[in-house]
Amino acid sequence: MDILGRALERQSTHGDALLLCVGQPSTGAPSPVVAQAETAVREDILGYTAASGTPELKEAIAGYYRRRYGVEVDPRRILITTGSSGGFTSLFLAVCDAGDEVVLARPGYPAYRNVLQALGVKLVEIDVTDPEHGFQLRVEDLEACTPRPRAVIVTSPSNPSGTVMDPAELRRLAQWCDENGVVLISDEIYHGISYGAECRSAAEFTDRAVIVGSVSKYFSMTGWRVGWLIVPPELVEPLDRLHANFTVCPPALSQQAAVKAFDHAALEELDAHVQRYARNREILLTRLPAMGLGRIAPADGAFYCYVDVSSITADSFRFAHELLDATGVAVAPGVDFDPVQGQRWIRLSYACDTDDIEAAMDRLEAYIRA
């Protein structure tokens, strides 16, 4: 966020900032969503909804899981949240007590680490940057944990690496968690954005996992702040009570509009965005190795390239600031995602326009070769 703030300042003073540091699409919500929002603004008072969300949106999400993954999800097990982030705190409070251990991969999404630490939960971070791991957790990592953790968090496609977990490994993880009484939390907010890799939901392998979803990434609706949790039955009531006290309810307008995000017309628009991401990805995977930055995490999905820059810097935070000052290109330093090895890595988001990707690569190459 420090990099983003400085990049926005540069945009106001120089007009040349290229934001490869932000994990959000450069496109707006699908047209059916916008049309539904316009109707709701004119015709609805937009008052409070149920704390766990509207029945209409829950039914729409359940239908999406039926069509996409072939699984039947009881809408009563779906809780609508104020973005997926809005569900983190209540979820961790419902699942964990202070002092419990939660396993997660490093590198990984920093908000998980920060929220868990704020709640007094102990982190067990597994370094997944070696080729054997492929930037994803394995059952063997969990077997090595004694005592057994309270929960394990997996993210596929991953932020920051973009890797997709092998379906067979996800099945093994789900089975291991069920057998050992460990809560599997499967972050699937980047589902819908992949490039040949198969994104499977943990809901296909167990009904005991907590599934985290959102309309932010694939659905191109970051600021609308609508996410969801699919939870085992015994977590529904505790989470409903927590949400009622923390946020009262998710945004009423966004919930009404989000119902249309799962329509066929909306999905056609969104798949066109993924085609653009795929073009941008190919540009990065071609040009980065050509400038000596060839060690890149397997970019299977999402819209990120996680790049080893240790050949040109030992401090990715300083490098990101200097690159921004010199060229206007904003990238995310790896230390945001990995406090141990992250000084060697940067994350590039390619959710922006293709022209911006080309221009950013031109500037980065000139900077490196200067």
Descriptive report:
This protein is 42% helix and 14% strand. Strand 5 (151-155), helix 7 (167-180) and strand 6 form a beta-alpha-beta unit. It contains twelve helices and twelve strands. The chain folds into two domains: 2-23 and 266-369, Aspartate Aminotransferase, domain 1 (Alpha-Beta Complex), CATH 3.90.1150.10; 31-262, Aspartate Aminotransferase, domain 2 (3-Layer(aba) Sandwich). It has a seven-stranded mixed sheet with strand order 2-8-7-6-5-3-4, sandwiched between helices. It has helices at residues 2-13, 31-43, 55-69, 83-95, 110-118, 139-143, 167-180, 233-246, 252-258, 264-290, 316-327, 354-369, and strands at 18-19, 78-81, 101-106, 122-127, 151-155, 183-187, 210-214, 227-230, 304-308, 329-330, 332-333, 345-349. Helix 2 packs across helix 9, helix 4 packs across helix 5 (110-118) and helix 10 (264-290) runs parallel beside helix 12. It has 370 residues and is α/β, with parallel strands linked by helices.
